[in-house]
Design a protein that fits this description.
The chain is an alpha/beta fold and 715 residues long. The protein is built from 24 helices and 22 strands. The longest helix has 16 residues, at 240-255. It comes from Capra hircus (Goat).
């Protein structure tokens, strides 16, 4: 759409007028509604500071309230201090929702500019550096605030909060608080709380070696107010101090259970002993409330009849992760012989080794599942969108319609799915059939010929191509809108796990996983909407041809996590991986965990073609790297801000490379976070504690993310 000459203006600061164009398909020829939708995908800083200055039409549209109402700065790694200050100055008065989650590179002085957005209703400042005084100044200027997310770091002092700040907090209804020190934080000031999310990331010892204690909180004059609470969620990192502190939060709940409580979730790695106060709390909940979401520590559920007594209204999320829950208990206490679970959207059964078997007393972990239990579960929960069955051996018996994949294919609304590798194997190995040696399952190479690994333009027969007859292929065909998929070996243990102890000598893969290889991986290429993929402990990956199929067909892929593919001690899929990466134009996050991996020029040359890449984490016991190749890669990939390399290189080599990377690229990349360190060095724990939590949680440390939390827990 051409602009008329009457739109011209002598003011040199005014945006230029769009040049006349003859072609009606020019961008500005679209309707305002379409243009607004397009502009909604442009980062806020670019939208206001750059796009707005291109022409008068876009200048007006970029300030439309639909675009300035909500500003999301998380993962806008190019948002410098100056850009954020200018953005707030330009549109601060119009912003009602602002997320600066994980903006660790911004100074406290810059974050303080949030106080200019006086109309804010929701603000997320998790991961931002804020002292008690700065937080007080910001919140004092936000009288309309109803939703808040912050970190509570060492040195926090609630007595420094002003009266205006406490008045704002008294009106807050939703609070997300990440604790790095024993404290109630701002919870006692939030007297109108309806949703409380607590993340406990407190280390047992300070940097100086001093032991922390939750007793620091005892005697504080203010305690939490829970009378209006509807949602209580607590996620604990490993460590006794986190358990000690969460007990102090729960003590208030045990005195008087909120009448409107409908979601109660506590995620604890390892064991968490039940106390008298928690028993009273659970008994009170069983008597007085009907829940819609539930997650409890495994030690509270194991051997308990609690599930029989709790009442549920329209449940949307259950997590029984790591619980000793048998299929019989699942049917009796959860499905309850006909309970209406059509509202259930998320179900986490990770680590529940016996949840698909009638009894867990006489059953071995490797025994076949009972298909009738899974069939009853699928029938009762037809609208499941998120399902996690990982960290267990779920072996299907022979027989038509008996396979786990065939039953899960009846859940077409699935958006995320996590399965053990052995669960997708077509059939159990037969005693009268000798196992096929790995070398015989490779792509036929001919006599003495070298073959370029890749996927031809037409499907080719044989083990390396997708086989429509396989149960896994059929499952993926019936869940076409899957957004996240995880295939994780039942015995897989990461060298750098999120909430589990690191195990250097992991168990061998399940025997049934031996029949899951390139063909099954190639079948994943059917998922045109797949954005997140995790593959871990697939010993029969030989050529990596299935990876190439994914790279070619899954064009929406944004995050990729690969771990322990192929035979241990050998990296045989390097050529296939290199071919795959050439096609991953939207890939933002790559995590690769592979012993003896050589991060050489070939690998980084292929990775350089991932033009959207932002975060890279490489974990390789006894692995090597070429410093020159890393530097060249960083110079080519201008968007990369996270480079975490944990290999078998010496400490001096790692330090030298890390310093070179910071010296070369930190000035032009404000969010740059580089860690290069020997994987088996005793000082690794101290190095990890300096990594921003957003990267630890999403890239650096391994974990299953399917149904980890209730859907839409936070905005």
């Amino acid at each position: 759409m051409a602009s008329s000459g009457e739109d011209t203006c002598d003011d040199s600061d005014a945006p230029p007028v769009a040049a006349p164009v003859a072609d009606s398909t020019h961008l500005l020829g679209f309707s305002d509604e379409i243009l607004l939708h397009i502009l909604s995908h442009v980062p806020s800083t670019d939208l206001v500071l750059n796009v707005r200055r291109t022409c008068r039409k876009l200048a007006a549209l970029c300030l439309d309230k639909s675009l300035t109402h909500t500003v999301l700065l998380q993962k806008e790694y190019e948002a410098s201090e100056d850009k954020v200050k200018r953005l707030v100055k330009e549109i601060g008065r119009d912003v009602q929702q602002l997320s600066m989650a994980g903006c660790y590179w911004l100074s406290g002085a810059t974050v303080e500019h949030v106080a200019r957005c006086r109309g804010l209703v929701r603000v997320n400042l998790s991961g931002c550096p804020l002292t008690s005084l700065r937080l007080s100044k910001v919140l004092s200027a936000l009288p309309h605030l109803r939703s808040l997310a912050i970190d509570v770091s060492p040195g926090f002092d609630a007595s420094q909060l002003s009266g205006e700040c406490k008045a704002t907090l008294s009106r807050v209804r939703e609070l997300k608080q990440t604790l790095y020190t024993p404290s109630y934080g701002v919870v006692p000031c939030c007297t109108s709380l309806e949703k409380l999310l607590l993340y406990f990331e407190i280390l047992d010892r300070t940097r100086e070696g001093a032991v922390l204690s939750g007793q620091l909180m005892v005697g504080q004059s203010n305690v939490p107010h829970y009378q209006h609470l509807r949602v209580f969620y607590a996620r604990l990192a490993p460590g006794y101090i986190n358990q000690e502190v969460v007990r102090l939060y729960l003590a208030v709940l045990s005195d008087r259970t909120p009448e409107n409580l409908h979601a109660f979730l506590i995620s604890v790695p390892g064991s968490f002993a039940e106390s008298g106060a928690t028993r009273n709390l659970l008994e009170s909940m069983a008597r007085n409330v009907a829940l819609d979401a539930l997650q409890l520590p495994k030690s509270w559920l194991n051997g308990s009849a609690l599930l029989q007594h709790l009442k549920f209204s329209s449940p949307f999320y259950f997590s029984f992760s790591r619980c000793a829950l048998s299929g019989g208990h699942l049917l009796q206490r959860v499905i309850d012989g006909g309970r209406d679970l059509r509202s259930l959207a998320g179900l986490n059964l990770s680590g529940c080794a016996h949840c698909l078997a009638p009894d867990c007393l006489l059953r071995k972990a490797e025994d076949d599942i009972d298909p009738a239990i899974l069939e009853a579960l699928v029938a009762a929960c037809p609208n499941l969108r998120h399902l996690n069955l990982s960290a267990a051996h779920h072996h299907s018996p022979e027989g038509p319609g008996q396979h786990l994949c065939q039953l899960l294919a009846r859940l077409p609304r699935l958006r995320s799915l996590s399965l053990p590798v052995c669960a997708v194997a077509d059939s159990p190995p037969r005693a009268d059939r000798a196992p096929v040696p790995p070398a015989m399952r490779a792509v036929p190479r001919g006599f003495g010929k070298k073959v370029r690994i890749g996927v031809p333009s037409v499907p080719f027969p044989g083990p390396a191509g997708p086989q429509p007859s396989s149960v896994f292929w059929s499952l993926l065909k019936n869940v076409p809108f899957l957004d996240r998929l995880e295939l994780i070996g039942s015995n897989f243990s990461s060298a750098m796990p999120r909430n589990e102890p690191a195990i250097r000598n992991s168990l061998p893969p399940c025997s049934r996983a031996q029949s899951v290889g390139d063909a099954e991986v190639a079948a994943i290429g059917q998922l045109a909407f797949l954005r997140h993929l995790t593959l871990a402990q697939l010993p029969s990956i030989l050529t990596g041809s299935g990876l190439v199929s994914i790279g070619l067909q899954c064009q929406q892929l944004q995050s990729l996590s690969l771990a322990h593919l192929g035979l241990m001690g050998k990296v045989v899929y390097m050529s296939g991986l290199s071919d795959m990466l050439k096609h991953c134009k939207r890939l933002k996050d790559l995590r690769l965990e592979q012993p003896y991996f050589s991060a050489n020029a070939q690998f980084f040359q292929a990775l350089s073609q991932c033009s959207a890449l932002q975060r890279l984490c490489l974990v390789s016991r006894s692995g090597t790297l070429q410093p020159e190749a890393v530097l060249a890669f960083m110079a080519r990939c201008l968007r990369v801000v996270v480079c975490h390399l944990f290999t078998g290189e010496s400490l001096s080599t790692c330090r030298s490379l890390q310093q070179a990377l910071l010296r070369s690229f930190q000035a032009e990349r404000p969010a740059l976070n580089v860690v290069v360190f020997p994987l088996l060095h005793e000082g690794l724990t101290d190095v990890i504690r300096d990594v921003p939590m957003v990267h630890l949680d999403e890239v650096t440390l391994f974990k299953s993310r399917v149904a980890e939390e209730p859907p839409n827990l936070w905005w």
